[in-house]
Amino acid sequence: MTNATTSRKGTAKAATTSAKRASNVKPATVLIVGAGFAGLGTAIRLQQAGIRNIVILERASAVGGTWRDNSYPGAACDIPSNLYSYSFDPNPDWSRSFSGSAEILSYIEAMVERFGLQQYIRFNQNVTDLSYDDDHGLWHASTEGGASFSGRVAVMAQGPLSNPGFPAIPGIEDFKGKTVHSAAWDHDYDFRGKRVGVIGTGASAIQIIPELAKQAGKLTVFQRTPAWVMPRPDFETPDWQKTLFRKVPASQSALRKGLYLAHESMALAVIWQSPVTRLAERLGRWHLRRQVKDRWLRRQLTPDYRIGCKRILVSNDYYPALQQPNSKLITWPIARISENGVRTVEGIEHQFDAIVYATGFEVSHSGTPFPVRGSAGRLLADDWARGAQAYKSINVAGYPNLFLTFGPNSGPGHNSALVYMESQIDYIVKGVKTILKRNLKALAVKDRAQDEYNAGIQKRLARTNWNSGCKSWYLTEDGFNATMYPGFATQYANQMSELELRDYTLITA
Predict the structure, then answer these.
(1) To bridge 223 with a disulfide, which of 48, 85, 201, 315 should be the other Cys (CB 3.0-4.6 Å)?
(2) Residues 157-198 pLDDT 10s
(3) Contact present, 155 and 30 (Cβ < 8 Å)
């Protein structure tokens, strides 16, 4: 992005002044938690709707969310950049079909600059409590530094992939070497010539492993379950295309539409079992056979579950990296972490200088990242103790004027997360405009509407590949799916296109 340097300076300047604006005396119209894609996108659309009394609380000193935190070698998005960006803020200058994390972060930073969002952001404000005041119809946020903020509407936009997750392996604190998590990468540590163990073979791991294979003296990868890995159609963007997109924006919109429809068709393979599912599995097996000639290694890397049950991965260099002379794949289960490395169940201790945990994030299916207290002091973690539920993934009964981004059952399995996010943001804007236009103290979804919606969602989920028997981060320990949306992105957008007031209780101020 050409504006990246300027936007970083603006972000840094805003960070240094945020302490001076620690508490807002006058309640904001909208209080947003998180300055990642969701929070910033919400602020942009609210601003475009004429709503400017906004406060964004960000726990870090810079914007970006998961793309700020995930800076590990090889970090990139597995959705094409022209689809993994906002339709209302296209970028004609993506360098590749699938851009890396640094370029995505630059896009986010430039977006802050273009739309003048610095004025809304309060950096270094880690929210520790969010509570609703029934008497005044306000949400109050308390932060780690002792500041307090309030707003008529609260938007939880902290994102589901924000807190690094470590596996429950005995002895994880005993290792005396270097420990690195994919979401908190140590760029000062030199992996060259080191004995490195990687725990995890998910979306982050398959990007990290090829880069570590270039540096490590010995690389050992511990695999619990093989994944379906698809080829990645990644190409450098030619200059003529960038020029065309700048001069004829409709051409970029057409490409985005084509990418959207192509990904929509993938739902027939990923979400439900169909003839397209078998075709997708054939493509995955062909990719594996083409890149892995050793039959025993190929057998170890072959999934034994239906495609779509776990997250599908895309990579052209993961399989080749595992076959480098300095690389080794271990499929024996891990018994414990020792002082010197990793012990597997057959009694072998693998000794390392460094262990990399590419084990993703703590994705809570029942809790919340901080206490959220609704009407009459009810606690959202208690209401979600048996599995998170919401109405249209965005409102929760008993929590008036609270909106969620990427709430329960809004996860995409086949299309861009930002497509779903735009639908949620537009819904939030409708809700806020309704509250202001009708001068409402509370816009509260009805229990009946939430129960009926979730009964339908769970019935539909029962017929999906996600619920077909494998264990994944989509499910709770007892198999409840509070994560994924069982349908096309088009269906999700349609359900979010209208704010159906009959499903809400409206309390005037």
Answers:
(1) 201
(2) 997 765 677 888 999 999 999 999 998 999 999 999 999 999
(3) yes
Average pLDDT over residues 359-387: 84
| 178-233+260-357 carries CATH number 3.90.170.10 | no
Cα→Cα distances 315→276, 294, 307, 442, Å = 21, 19, 16, 48
Q: What is the pLDDT of residue 13?
A: 42
139 bridge partner residues: 132, 151
Tokens for 155, please give them.
């938007």
- Can you give the pLDDT at residue 11? 41
Q: Do 315 and 284 contact (CB within 8 A), yes or no?
A: no
Nearest CA-CA partner of 18 in 121, 114, 102:
121
Range 132-141, long-range pairs (CB < 8 A, 24+ positions): 132/373, 132/374, 132/375, 132/399, 132/400, 132/401, 132/402, 134/375, 134/376, 136/441, 137/400, 137/401, 137/440, 137/441, 137/442, 137/507, 137/509, 138/27, 139/31, 139/401, 139/402, 141/31, 141/33, 141/57
Q: Identify any residues that bridge with 178 across adjacent strands, giving them in sequence order.
A: 354
- Nearest Cα to 272, choosing from 118, 487, 71, 471? 487
Residues with Cβ within 8 Å of residue 169, at least 6 apart in sequence = 199, 334, 336, 337
Torsions phi, psi for 67 (to 5 deg): -80, -15
Report how far residue 170's alpha carbon sits from residue 204's, in angstroms, rounded to the nearest whole number.
23
Task: Identify the sign of the CA torsion 468, 473, 478, 484.
Answer: negative
Q: Do 181 and 166 form a contact (C-beta atoms < 8 A)? A: yes
CATH 3.50.50.60 maps onto the chain at 4-163+364-508, 178-233+260-357
Beta strands in 127-190 (DSSP E): 127-133, 138-143, 148-156, 178-181
Q: Which of 437, 484, 429 is nearest to 44 (CA)?
A: 429
For tokens 């504006």, name the residue. 3
Give buried/exposed letters for 323-350 (b at 16+ CB in 10 A, else e): eeebbebbbeebbebbeebbbbeeeeeb
CA atoms within 13 A on the CB side of 343: 14
DSSP bridge partners of 402: 154
pLDDT for res 156? 97
Amino acid occupying residue 111: M
Q: For the whole model, what pTM was predicted?
A: 0.92
Residues 6+ apart with CB under 8 A from 463: 272, 486
Architecture of the CATH domain 4-163+364-508:
3-Layer(bba) Sandwich (3.50)
